[in-house]
Amino acid sequence: MSATDKGPKYDFSDVSKTDSQKWKLFSKDLSHHVMNTHGPLGSLADPRTITLIEDSPGDDLWGLTKRQPFSEKFYSGTEKSFIAFKDTWFKVQMLVYTILDSCFLASDTELINNYSYTATRARIEQYVTAKTDSGDPVSDEYAALLLQFVPFGSFLLHHLDKKYGVEEATDAISMLIAHDVARNSFKDGSKAELQKWCNTLGVTWFNLQRVAAKHDPEHLASLQTLMVIITRGVIPGRTGLPTYSISLIGRTGLSKLLMS
Prior knowledge:
The protein is mainly alpha-helical and 260 residues long.
């Protein structure tokens, strides 16, 4: 079994947690898995501890040469160890990318494709060319380093973290739906079924309260309107929706759910 096969999975079907809760657990497990496979260098696969500014590699490889354990390996001093370091770095990036690809290709196809090694390297080459054309060229030596340490997996992880790691309106919607499903899941009057139903209802209510505390009543009323739309599988135009729901749609970017 490969390291990828043993890697963490992101469970889209788990309605007991919000996207951000699932992402935090997933990204933590991902970091641990990469570290277990490739040692301390895998700690740089943790979105909680490093943010790479993609469009600005600066003179320090996106800040990597200032961070341990990257800097220790980068300035090791021997050609043999440097070559081994480049190889390990690529393996770290490839492992991160492959796990993310296996989990998010269906939901985030464009991101996955945009941050493949080939696509990311091509953008770095374009950056080097643009710097030369602007009269502020990157040295040949530094350009070579940029292409030897392409952080394609880290870039992809960063973008997915921005999407799934922040609690927003969709988290509240998912919690409303989860609680509604749990509330209506009681099928018979057996004691065992009742206990199971109470436990599930308690979990979804706890999660809903936590998310609801961050939103005002109008916001929640808007989310409940959208929840009805989502659960019925209907994608209407805005005509006929309550004013507060239209306001929420504009503020949160949920207009993608509706036809203009």
